[in-house]
Amino acid sequence: MADAIVVEDLHKFYKEKHAVCGVSFRVAKGEIFGIVGPNGAGKTTTLEILEGLRRRDRGSVKVLGLDPQKQARTLRERIGIQFQSTSIQERLKVREALTLFSSLYKKQGNVDRAIESFDLKKVENTYFKDLSGGWKQRLMLALATIHDPELIFLDEPSTGLDPNARREIWALIKQLRDASKTIVITTHYMEEAEKLCDRVAMFKGGEVAALDTPKRLIATSMGMNYLSFLSSTVDRTKLRAIHGVSRVECEGETVKVYCADLQAVSLQVFQLAQEQKWKIDAFCFEMGSLDDLFVQLIGGGEKA
């Protein structure tokens, strides 16, 4: 499959700050590619360079075969950018906003089709200021795709939405992917990255700390699986000695035993508890997740 985006050794400096430090990755045509990371990790700067909104200092970037720094005007006809809702005048009606954005492109979009595709009929004559968060995000997606772009950039597409509205936005994004669009998403929600993205790049300190499919990334966090139980009689040293246990945490009577193989380790814990006559209650299991890997790799982020 051909690549929609190729980034090699990308660097960006802001005075003394090295905001993007030798980033390299590829985005295949037709995939949903996620970029996650704390504030200040370089993900927004990278996105703006890909969109042709910011100049790079070093490295090579190709978006749909074009250099966004040198061919930004041509590129903008072929990409869609989801702007923040603050960029829309409050007294514009939904249909008016779609008509206005459509007029900005050589290939003017079909406003009626956009209203139908994003289920905006019931609010087409509603002022932007009167829309709920979910309807605003629907409109922002419609505006980003009004000219039928090949590649769509979405920056935090479901931030601030309730769970139902968030899932509705996810369904619309999947609908775009099913229409053979390539989509790049930045998000703070690990669940969003896991549910939507074919691959995810985790940014830290201007670098890519990890990049793979959500399934494979989660597999690398299997050492963060743990079994949890209540006990005041266990011997932490004996638990640590069990084969496959990576660490043991005790807080009050709550005991957490971290491991890769939950089934094998839990059997050994039960056997040891019987031998040592430990009393344990409220036994449960927790699987490693993308959230766990994110916390392990990224930790705290500098706000910027």
Shape: elongated
Number of spatially distinct domains: 2
Instruction: Give the helix proportion (percent range).
Output: 25-40%
Secondary-structure class = alpha/beta
CATH second-level architecture of the largest domain: 3-Layer(aba) Sandwich
Arrangement of strands in the largest sheet: 5-6-7-3-8-9
- Beta-strand percentage? 25-35%
Number of strands: 13
Order of helices and strands: EEEHEHEHHHEHEHEEHEHEEHEH
The profile of the biggest β sheet is: 6 strands, mixed
Mean pLDDT: 92
Count of helical regions: 11
> In CATH's first tier, which class of the largest domain applies?
Alpha Beta
How far apart lie the N and C ends? 36 Å
**Which spans of ≥5 residues are poorly predicted at pLDDT below 50?**
300-304
Global Rg: 24 Å
What is the CATH superfamily label of the largest domain? P-loop containing nucleotide triphosphate hydrolases
